[in-house]
Amino acid sequence: MSTRSDWNAWAAGRESARITDWLREISEPDWSATVNHPLFDALAEGRLSGDDFAAYMVQDYGFVDPFTALIGHAIGHAPSMPDRVVLGQFMGMLTSDENSTFQRTFDAFDVPASLREAPDYLPQTRAFRELLHDTGQGGDYAEILAVLVVTEWVYLEWALRVTRVDGLHPLMGEWIDLHDNPAFQEFVAWLRQRLDEEAAALDDTAFARMAERFRDTVAKERAFHDAVLPR
Ligand SMILES: Cc1ncc(CO)c(N)n1
């Protein structure tokens, strides 16, 4: 379960226990299934065709759109300027470097205008979009942070885990670079720190809601990557 008393019991036997470590643990087996997803090995080892990479990126752009809006909600819900600065800088990267990676990928692999303008989202993409939208509309700051911690920490972990082949397509290399670079590592460490702090101050109801949101986001990560894996 994912109540504050479950967290307290987990933390009791551990030195310097962190809420985000507990959240990750209660999200197993979905967490490890996502980090170790075969899609990422195929991508890094050059076994994903251009068409399959482009299809994944089209679905993922359907994630990035409401995800960018969610960062906006996070900026609005943040308690003060220091958080708004970190989140705003991440928003800047997302809407410049990362957005450009998507656009150049769609160009390089000839994704037709029709698919860019009216993408055919898989049910799992639609479910993830809905989660991001709902969290932005109704979630408090801790719930928003819970979603951001999952989505960014999972991507950091797989990107650090995979081994790239020589001669990997530059756009595929760029996709890995975006998720394992030192600035991104620092951002994920900051997100975790802030969720640890904010979650500790929640009342029991809000704490349970935050933990459920974390678990649901991990489940949706796994389902999304299962759905986009070519077979
Ligand atoms: C589905 C998904 N989760 C996380 C990230 C990282 O932001 C991403 N690009 N796509």
UniProtKB/TrEMBL annotation:
Pfam families: TENA_THI-4. Pathway: Cofactor biosynthesis; thiamine diphosphate biosynthesis. The keyword Hydrolase applies. Its EC number is 3.5.99.2. Gene3D superfamilies: Heme oxygenase-like. InterPro entries: Haem_Oase-like_multi-hlx, TenA_E, Thiaminase-2/PQQC, Thiamine_Salvage_TenA. It catalyses: thiamine + H2O = 5-(2-hydroxyethyl)-4-methylthiazole + 4-amino-5-hydroxymethyl-2-methylpyrimidine + H(+); 4-amino-5-aminomethyl-2-methylpyrimidine + H2O = 4-amino-5-hydroxymethyl-2-methylpyrimidine + NH4(+). Keywords: Hydrolase, Thiamine biosynthesis. Residues 29-227 form the Thiaminase-2/PQQC domain. The active site is at 221 (proton donor). GO terms for cellular component: cytosol. GO terms for molecular function: thiaminase activity. It comes from the Bacteria. It is an enzyme of class 3 (hydrolase). Substrate binds at residues 60, 98, 152. One of its GO terms (biological process) is thiamine biosynthetic process. The keyword Hydrolase applies. Belongs to the TenA family. Catalyzes an amino-pyrimidine hydrolysis reaction at the C5' of the pyrimidine moiety of thiamine compounds, a reaction that is part of a thiamine salvage pathway. Thus, catalyzes the conversion of 4-amino-5-aminomethyl-2-methylpyrimidine to 4-amino-5-hydroxymethyl-2-methylpyrimidine (HMP). This is Aminopyrimidine aminohydrolase.
